[in-house]
Amino acid sequence: MIELRGHHLFCLLGYRGMGYSPAYVENMTRIHQSLRNNPGTWIQIVKGPDHLCDKFPATGEYHCENLTIYDRDQDILNKMNLEIGQILKWEDIESRIREYITPSDIQVVCKTCTWRSLGVCEEGIQEIHQGKGLKEVH
Ligand code: SF4
Predict the structure, then answer these.
(1) Can you tell me which atom of ligand 1 is nearest the CA of 72?
(2) Suppose 19 and one of 24, 54, 58, 131 were both cysteines; which one would form an S-S bond, judging by CB atoms 3.0 to 4.6 Å apart?
(3) Total structural domains in the chain?
(4) What is the pLDDT of residue 60?
(5) Which residue range forms the structural domain that includes residue 19?
(6) Nearest to 36 by CA among 134, 138, 137
(7) % of the chain surpassing 90 pLDDT
(8) Cβ contacts of 32 within 8 Å, gap of 6 or more
(9) Alpha-carbon distance 65 to 83, whole Å?
């Protein structure tokens, strides 16, 4: 089972192989690929640092405990009608994206994220709406 915090449900949709360090990217690519290849993978929604934060580089400015990030997690869970501790399959998360989320939500909930301007997260949501699933990352 993979533990994920709220905002990482969105980050995975926009993931294109970029990240904070080689170890971070390797871990995120592995998780992303297992969800892509097996959408029936079980996910547990957690509060605070999750299995992606595990590999945040010790040399980077650690933002995983910032209150603004906790707020972003909660905003996203509220929108998707999810709760901390809930266990569900990745494919059910994709269904909720289709049901509750639009690409423009990124502009609001992720307002302060430095990755937002790349546009890949909105594109990722769009692709889920088109039934494409997670994008292949090399
Ligand atoms: S804009 Fe930032 S926080 Fe929001 S989904 Fe993209 S990478 Fe994640």
Answers:
(1) 3
(2) 24
(3) 1
(4) 74
(5) 2-129
(6) 134
(7) 91
(8) 12, 15, 134, 137
(9) 19
- Give me the phi and psi of 2, to 5 degrees please: -105, 130
Could you tell me if the CB of 10 is within 6 A of ligand 1? yes
Q: List CB contacts of 138: < 8 A, sequence separation 6 or more.
A: 17
Torsion of CA 11, 46, 72, 21, to 10 degrees: -40
- Does residue 135 belong to any structural domain of this protein? no
E strands of 85-131, at which residues? 87-89
Residue 136 lies in a domain: no
pTM of the model: 0.95
The CA distance from 130 to 85, in Å, is: 29
Whole-number pLDDT of residue 33: 97
Protein residue with its CA nearest to atom 4 in ligand 1: 110
Residue 138, in any domain of the structure: no
Q: Is the CB of 121 under 6 A from ligand 1?
A: yes
Compute the C-alpha angle 20/13/46, nearest 5°: 75
